[in-house]
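SAMPLE LOG
Freezer: B-3
Tube label: C17
Construct: single chain, 85 aa
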Amino acid sequence: MITSMPRVSFTPNLRRHLDCPTVDAPGATVRAALEHVFAGNPRLRGYLLDEHGCLRRHVTIFVNDAPAADRVTLADPVGEGDDIF
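STRUCTURE (predicted):
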């Protein structure tokens, strides 16, 4: 059985301003997966999160086809093969 990590992708609009390719990121929550991405691309954090570490008002994160419910701690669960967009 082949397992895969959650896949984190970004909008074309964001990619115009910052190099942020699609990344397979380990983590059981949206926050954990994003922290992995931020470790390799620190500038991306400021585009997505405010000074308190919460999701910026103009940003929406989807897990598969549903908007993430937790905009403060980003604790929505993710699993193998999930898409974070």
